[in-house]
Amino acid sequence: MLTAKFVTTDKELIQIAELSAANLSSNISAETKATEGFVSWFYPIDTLRALHAVVPSVIVKDGDTVVGYALTLTRECVAVYPPMAPTVAHVSAIRYKDRPLADRPLYFMGQICVGAGYRGQGVVGMLYQFHRQEFSSQYEMLITEIATNNPRSLKAHEKVGFRIVDTYRDEQNEWDVVLWDWNI
Fold first, then answer.
1. Taking the complete model, does pTM exceed 0.85, yes or no?
2. Buried b or exposed e, range 10-24, using 16+ CB within 10 angstroms
3. Residue 57 pLDDT greater than 70, yes or no
4. Phi, psi of 73 (to 5 degrees)
5. Residue spans per domain, the chain
6. Do the bridges between strand 2-6 and strand 58-62 make them parallel or antiparallel, or are there none, so unpaired?
């Protein structure tokens, strides 16, 4: 039985790191990237532990196995994970409904991933519904970036309710900034 919950153990963080590595763009074939999607960043266990100390991430488990994760990143996470600083700066300057996102109570999805044997079973929806249930009293919206060459991920996010609010290019890739406004 699949269940969504917050990360509570080091074993779960280790399984997130393993799932991240198994689905990293540089570790999978072009065919798999095109048909199944991919993750762009590897999160080593030490980074996951530091982030989890700030705010817990959400996982879906099948028994004792983590089959999907959605990393929670608040602005405070920049202190322990400096690579997210450019994203925070970029997003902060975006205007949404006539206000800069810097003025809005929002947080970031650091990454979402579902294991190969569990795709198409509603795991993405479970992860995001748990996020909304647990964080909507503190935040108005959830925001993330999706590589424009990852259409499977964009489609999954749009199905949940995310909408593109910006597209930009950095030294690594071109990104769609997508936002899920919980007030709509």
1. yes
2. eebbebbbebbeebb
3. yes
4. -135, 120
5. 2-181
6. antiparallel
Per-residue confidence band for 28, with pLDDT thresholds at 50, 70 and 90: low
Q: What's the token pair of residue 89?
A: 């700066």
Look over the chain and give the mean of its residue pLDDT values, rounded to a whole number. 92
Residue 39 has pLDDT above 70, yes or no: no
- All residues at 6 or more sequence positions from 18 whose CB lies less than 8 Å from its CB, including other chains: none
Q: In the numeric block, which tokens belong to residue 147? A: 């590589």
- Whole-angstrom Cα distance, residue 126 to residue 128? 6
Q: What is the mean pLDDT of residues 159-182?
A: 94
Pick the CATH number of 2-181 from 3.40.1280.10, 3.40.50.300, 3.40.630.30, 3.10.450.50: 3.40.630.30
Pairing, β 106-114 against β 2-6: unpaired
